[in-house]
C-alpha cells in the first residue's frame, strides 16, 4: 500500500500567503519577497507530509492565486486584451492582472471571469477560448516546483489539471465552435510539460479529472480516450494517477477504468456506494486510490468504517494495487487543529471530534498502518482514541434539541408562501417605498478598513469595552449612511462594520454552531474565510441584526435595508454536521432566519435582503440529483422569507453562477428583487433571465468589486443598456456585483458615484424616449 495527498492548503499556517499577496499588490514588498513566502510555504508543506510518512507528496498544488489560472498561464492561454502587457511586464504581474484586472500606465484592462469550483465555495478564474486557438508553454511553474521539491530531498508527484478538465472549465468567447475541439491544439503543450518532468526524474504524475464524475456527452468521452491514449503512447514509463472527486463515477465507470493509466482515484466520502462496482470492473493493470479521509469537512475520520473499505479493496486487489488518500485536495480544509488553543471558543469535547489538514495527513498514515498485518502500538493507540471520539460524538447531549426538532416537524407548505403573488406585492411595495426608475443600492457591506478590523480585534481581546466599541461602530455607520445620502443612492445599507464574515457573523449568534480561531480556508485569491462548524440542532436564541438595522434606519429618511444571509448559503459555507441529512439542517436554519426577518419587519425595516450566493453552488454535480436538492433549497429560502406582509420587499443576492439550468427554480424562490453578478460577463448571465421572461425585479451588477479597477460612468451606462435591451427598464435595479467589504474607500467612492450617475443618465434617457 502507498499513501498520497491530492493537494495541501497553500495559504500557510497563519495566512502568510494572503498577507504577502496583499502587501505586494499595494507595493509594500517586492516580487522577490512574495516568491520567498511561497517557497517557504511549499517547503513547509512538503516537510510536514514527509515527516508524517506520506509516500507520494504532491507538488504544483501551490498557487499564488488559483490553480486554474496557473494552468492558463502555463499553456499561454492569455486573452488578447492582456497581450500588450504579456511581454512587457514580469510573469507574476501578468498573472495577477488576469485575475484582478489592470488599471495603470495608461491601460485599463478588465479581469477574467471567476466562478465556483464545482460545488465548493472556492472560486477559480475561468479560461477564455477562441476558435482555432493556439497554445504554447508560457510558464515553467510546474517544472520549477518539481525541481525545487527534488532539491529539498523529495521526489514529488506533480499535480496537473487534466487536459479535458481544463478545457471543460473554460468558456468559448465566440460562437461557432466547441472548446473540446481545442484538445489537439493543447495536447502538444501537455506533452512538452511531461517530457520536461520525465527528464528531471518524475515517476508519478497526478492528473486531476473531476469531470469524469460528472455528466459527459459522447464527444467528451471519446476525447478522453484519445488524449490519454496519446499521452500513454508518448510516455510508456511514467505512472499516471487520474484523480476524480466530488462525485461517483457512475455511468463513466467503464470509461475511467479503460483509460491507459496506472492509478484511478475515487471519492468514497461523496460516493461510498461506488466501491463495489469499481472493484468488480477494474482491470488487473489498474491500481485503485481510495479517497476515504474527507478533504472538504472537518470531522474526524471513522477508522472502523475506513478500514472496512480498505480491507474490501485489499481482498480484491492485494496491497500493491491499493493507495490510501483523502477524498480530494485539502485545499478546502483548515490548516492545523493544534492552533486551536482557546477552550472558550472551541471546547475540548467538540475539538476531539475534529481533524484539520495536518491531522488528516496523520489519519491517512495511521490507516495504512492499521490495515497492515502488524500495526504498531502507536497506530493501535490511535485506533482506540478514534473509537472513543466517534462514540462520544454519537451520544453527546450537546447535539440534540427536541424543541427544534418539533418545530421542523410541524412546518407546513403555508409557511413557504407569501400572502399575495408578486404582481400584487409590487404595487403595494411601490405605494409604500416610492422608489424611482433604475433605483440604486449596494449589496450590503462597505469597506472594512484597518481601523474597523482593529476595533473588532481589540474588542474580542478585551482591550476595548463594549460601550466604546459600540460608539465607534455607530460613528462609522452614520458616516456611511450620510455619504450614501450625499451621492444619491436610493436604498441605503448600514455597511456591516459590526460583522466579520457574512456566515460567521450569524453562526456566532445561532445555537448549534461552534467556531475556531484559525480555521481559515481559501475562497479566492487572497480572500480567506473561517467557516463555522454546525455540530448540533440550530435555532436563534436572540435577534441578531435588529439593533444595527434599527439604528441605521433612524439616521435617514430614505429606506435602509436589513441584511441577512440565507439558509442555503449558511449551510454551504459552513462545515456541516454529517449525522443527519443536509436538508434537515437547512430547514432548521431557515426557521431561525424567518424569526429574524419577522423581527426586522416589526422594527420598521421595509426592505430586507436575504443573500443566497451559494444556492447554485449547492447544486449536485449530476443532473439526475438536481430536483431533490432544488426542492428543499428553494423551500428553505421561502420559509425564511414568507412570514412578512406584502409591503415588505424581499431581496436576494447571487453571484458567480450560471443560472440557465435553474432559472425556473430561481423564479420559484419568489424574491421581489434579485441582484446578480454580471459585470465580468458583460451582462451575458442576464440572458437566462431574459429568455425565461423573469417576472420579478433584477439588479444586474455593473461594478466588479473583486477587481481594484474603477469602472467609468460610461462603462456602466453601456452595461445597463445591454441589460435594458433584454430586461424591461421597470424591472431593473442598479448595483455592484457583490459586497464592498474587501475594497478600499477611495475605489468605492469613485465607483459608486459613477454608478449613481449612470443610473440617472439611464433614467433620463428612458424618460425622454417615453415622451
Automatic annotation (TrEMBL):
Report the co-factor binding details.
Answer: Binds 1 zinc ion per subunit.
User: Which keywords does UniProt give here?
Assistant: Amino-acid biosynthesis, Metal-binding, Methionine biosynthesis, Methyltransferase, Repeat, Transferase, Zinc
Q: Which cofactor does it need?
A: Zn(2+)
Location of the active site: 706 (proton donor)
Reaction(s) catalysed by this chain, per the record, are: 5-methyltetrahydropteroyltri-L-glutamate + L-homocysteine = tetrahydropteroyltri-L-glutamate + L-methionine
> Any idea where the Cobalamin-independent methionine synthase MetE N-terminal domain is?
3-314
- In this chain, 5-methyltetrahydropteroyltri-L-glutamate is annotated as bound at 15-18, 116, 527-528, 573, 617
Q: Which Pfam families match?
A: Meth_synt_1, Meth_synt_2
Q: Which HAMAP family match?
A: Meth_synth (MF_00172)
**Which protein family is it in?**
Belongs to the vitamin-B12 independent methionine synthase family.
The name of this protein is: 5-methyltetrahydropteroyltriglutamate--homocysteine methyltransferase
Q: Which gene encodes it?
A: metE
Amino acid at each position: 500500500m502507498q499513501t498520497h495527498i491530492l493537494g495541501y492548503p497553500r495559504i500557510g499556517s497563519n495566512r502568510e500567503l494572503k498577507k504577502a499577496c496583499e502587501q505586494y499588490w499595494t507595493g509594500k514588498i517586492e516580487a522577490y519577497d512574495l516568491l520567498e513566502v511561497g517557497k517557504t510555504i511549499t517547503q513547509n508543506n512538503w516537510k510536514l507530509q514527509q515527516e508524517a510518512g506520506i509516500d507520494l507528496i504532491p507538488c504544483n498544488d501551490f498557487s499564488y492565486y488559483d490553480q486554474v489560472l496557473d494552468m492558463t498561464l502555463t499553456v499561454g492561454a492569455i486573452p488578447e486584451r492582456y497581450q500588450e502587457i504579456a511581454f512587457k511586464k514580469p510573469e507574476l504581474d501578468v498573472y495577477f492582472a488576469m485575475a484582478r484586472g489592470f488599471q495603470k500606465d495608461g491601460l485599463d484592462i478588465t479581469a477574467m471571469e471567476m466562478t465556483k469550483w464545482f460545488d465548493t465555495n472556492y472560486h477559480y478564474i475561468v479560461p477564455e477560448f477562441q476558435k482555432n486557438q493556439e497554445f504554447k508553454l508560457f510558464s515553467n511553474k510546474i517544472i520549477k516546483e518539481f525541481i525545487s521539491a527534488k532539491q529539498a530531498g523529495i521526489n514529488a508527484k506533480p499535480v496537473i489539471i487534466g487536459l479535458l478538465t481544463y478545457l471543460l472549465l473554460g468558456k468559448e468567447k465566440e460562437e461557432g465552435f466547441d472548446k473540446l475541439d481545442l484538445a489537439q491544439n493543447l495536447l502538444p503543450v501537455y506533452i512538452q510539460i511531461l517530457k520536461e518532468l520525465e527528464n528531471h526524474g518524475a515517476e508519478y504524475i497526478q492528473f486531476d479529472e473531476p469531470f469524469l464524475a460528472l455528466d459527459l456527452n459522447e464527444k467528451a468521452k471519446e476525447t478522453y480516450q484519445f488524449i490519454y491514449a496519446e499521452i500513454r503512447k508518448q510516455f510508456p514509463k511514467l505512472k499516471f494517477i487520474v484523480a476524480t472527486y466530488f462525485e461517483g463515477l457512475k455511468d463513466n465507470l467503464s470509461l475511467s477504468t479503460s483509460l491507459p493509466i496506472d492509478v484511478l482515484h475515487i471519492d468514497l466520502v461523496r460516493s461510498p456506494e461506488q466501491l463495489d462496482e469499481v472493484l468488480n470492473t477494474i482491470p488487473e493493470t489498474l491500481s485503485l486510490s481510495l479517497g476515504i479521509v474527507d478533504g472538504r469537512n472537518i470531522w474526524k475520520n471513522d477508522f472502523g468504517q475506513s478500514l472496512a473499505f480498505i480491507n474490501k479493496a485489499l481482498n480484491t486487489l492485494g496491497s500493491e494495487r491499493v493507495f490510501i488518500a483523502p477524498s480530494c485536495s485539502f485545499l478546502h480544509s483548515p490548516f492545523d487543529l493544534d492552533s486551536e488553543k482557546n477552550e472558550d471558543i472551541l471546547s475540548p469535547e467538540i475539538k476531539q471530534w475534529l481533524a484539520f489538514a495536518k491531522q488528516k495527513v496523520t489519519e491517512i498514515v495511521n490507516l495504512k498502518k492499521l490495515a497492515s498485518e502488524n500495526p504498531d502500538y502507536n497506530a493501535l493507540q490511535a485506533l482506540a482514541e478514534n473509537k472513543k471520539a466517534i462514540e462520544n460524538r454519537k451520544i453527546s447531549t450537546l447535539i440534540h434539541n427536541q424543541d427544534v426538532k418539533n418545530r421542523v416537524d410541524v412546518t407546513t407548505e403555508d409557511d413557504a408562501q407569501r400572502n399575495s403573488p408578486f404582481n400584487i406585492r409590487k404595487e403595494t411595495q411601490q405605494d409604500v417605498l416610492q422608489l424611482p426608475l433604475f433605483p440604486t443600492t449596494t449589496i450590503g457591506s462597505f469597506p472594512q478598513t484597518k481601523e474597523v478590523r482593529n476595533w473588532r480585534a481589540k474588542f474580542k481581546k478585551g482591550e476595548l469595552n463594549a460601550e466604546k466599541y459600540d460608539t465607534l461602530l455607530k460613528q462609522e455607520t452614520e458616516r456611511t449612511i450620510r455619504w450614501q445620502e450625499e451621492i444619491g443612492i436610493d436604498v441605503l445599507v448600514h455597511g456591516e462594520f459590526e460583522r466579520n464574515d457574512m456566515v460567521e457573523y450569524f453562526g456566532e449568534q445561532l445555537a448549534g454552531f461552534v467556531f475556531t480561531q484559525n480555521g481559515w480556508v481559501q475562497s479566492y485569491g487572497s480572500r480567506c474565510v473561517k467557516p463555522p462548524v454546525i455540530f448540533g440542532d440550530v435555532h436563534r436564541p436572540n435577534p441578531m441584526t435588529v439593533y444595527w438595522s434599527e439604528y441605521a434606519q433612524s439616521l435617514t429618511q430614505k429606506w435602509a435595508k436589513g441584511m441577512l444571509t440565507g439558509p442555503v448559503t449558511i449551510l454551504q459555507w459552513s462545515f456541516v454536521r454529517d449525522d443527519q441529512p443536509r436538508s434537515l439542517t437547512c430547514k432548521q436554519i431557515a426557521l431561525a432566519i424567518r424569526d429574524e426577518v419577522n423581527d426586522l419587519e416589526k422594527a420598521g425595516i421595509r426592505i430586507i435582503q436575504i443573500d443566497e450566493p451559494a444556492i447554485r453552488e449547492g447544486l449536485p454535480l449530476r443532473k439526475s440529483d438536481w430536483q431533490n436538492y432544488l426542492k428543499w433549497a428553494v423551500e428553505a429560502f421561502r420559509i425564511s422569507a414568507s412570514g412578512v406582509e406584502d409591503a415588505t420587499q424581499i431581496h436576494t443576492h447571487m453571484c458567480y453562477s450560471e443560472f440557465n439550468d435553474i432559472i425556473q427554480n430561481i423564479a420559484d424562490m419568489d424574491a421581489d428583487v434579485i441582484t446578480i453578478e454580471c459585470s465580468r460577463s458583460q451582462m451575458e448571465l442576464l440572458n437566462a433571465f431574459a429568455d425565461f421572461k423573469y417576472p420579478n425585479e433584477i439588479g444586474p451588477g455593473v461594478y466588479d468589486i473583486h477587481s481594484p479597477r474603477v469602472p467609468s460612468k460610461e462603462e456602466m451606462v453601456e452595461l445597463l443598456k445591454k441589460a435594458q435591451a433584454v430586461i424591461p427598464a421597470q424591472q431593473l435595479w442598479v448595483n455592484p456585483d457583490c459586497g464592498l467589504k474587501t475594497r478600499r474607500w477611495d475605489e468605492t467612492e469613485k465607483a459608486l458615484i459613477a454608478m449613481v450617475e449612470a443610473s440617472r443618465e439611464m433614467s433620463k434617457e428612458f424618460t425622454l424616449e417615453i415622451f
